[in-house]
Design goal:
By secondary structure, the protein is of the alpha/beta class. The chain has one domain (3-112). Helices cover 37% and strands 14% of the residues. It is built from five helices and four strands; from the N terminus they run ββαβαααβα. It is globular, with a radius of gyration of 14 Å. The two termini are 18 Å apart.
Length: 117
Amino acid sequence: MPFKLKRAQEPFSKSDGYRMLVDRLWPRGISKERAHLDEWNKVLPPSNELRKAFHGGELGFKAFSAAYRKELHGHPDELDRVRELAEDRTVTLLYASANVEENHARVLLTTLEGKPG
């Protein structure tokens, strides 16, 4: 399954394949034309409560990751649908977070790939 992660602020590339925004909120300063999206997935991003707790500092990344994985496992059909998209093409998961190491898109990627957190 060829998945890639990319910040929404980075330029579009044909090698991105299917471009899926996986943020609950639209990224600031990015027009819909510049985003070159194939899909804005509003099912798989973290819940508003979880997102706010993480960004507000109430949860560290480890606790956030565990809680988010639990949320993701509540959407098996959607996870399977996204995996199916990646069977015959690259799927690039787009996110807006400035932290490229500790963000929800990384947790989503490891879940899609079936890797332990």
